[in-house]
């Protein structure tokens, strides 16, 4: 956790969940302007959309067969936050689950630069403002 920050509730388009507290606020993208995620690892490459994002990481849903490697494996990412300019980042596969006919993956960011962190923080703050009407 970043110094001086305290856990705050997980925010989603449906509002703030009282049961799900995370280290960082997590938001879902505007469905009209998705977050594109190009993900590359050992033996795989795919272009997907994030289901949610925070400064700690992001979630992706994969509606097709996808061999993303092992949990803990590091991946390269190219992230496009809505209409913003894409940026490169690294992440680690942290969990995988099967929901309905999709695979859902959690990816933890690794070694974000100050610039990357600022882009994600700005995006999250913007979405929180819209969702919470602040």
Polypeptide structure, described:
By secondary structure, the protein is mainly beta. It has one domain (29-132): predicted glycosyltransferase like domains (Thrombin, subunit H). The chain is globular and about 40 Å long. The longest helix has 19 residues, at 114-132. A 6-stranded antiparallel β-barrel has the order 3-4-5-8-7-6. A hairpin with a 2-residue loop joins strand 1 (8-12) and strand 2 (15-22). The protein has 1 helix and 8 strands, in the order ββββββββα.
Order of helices and strands: EEEEEEEEH
Largest sheet: 6 strands, antiparallel, barrel
Strand order of the largest sheet: 3-4-5-8-7-6
List the uncertain runs: 1-21
Name the beta content range: over 45%
The quaternary state of the protein chains shown equals single chain
Rg (CA only): 14 Å
Under the CATH scheme, the architecture is Beta Barrel
Distance linking N and C termini: 24 Å
Strand elements, count: 8
Q: What share of residues is helical? A: 10-25%
Shape: globular
Number of H- or I-type helical stretches = 1
Structural class: mainly beta
The CATH topology assignment is Thrombin, subunit H
CATH class: Mainly Beta
- Can you tell me the CATH superfamily? predicted glycosyltransferase like domains
Kindly state the mean pLDDT as a whole number? 81
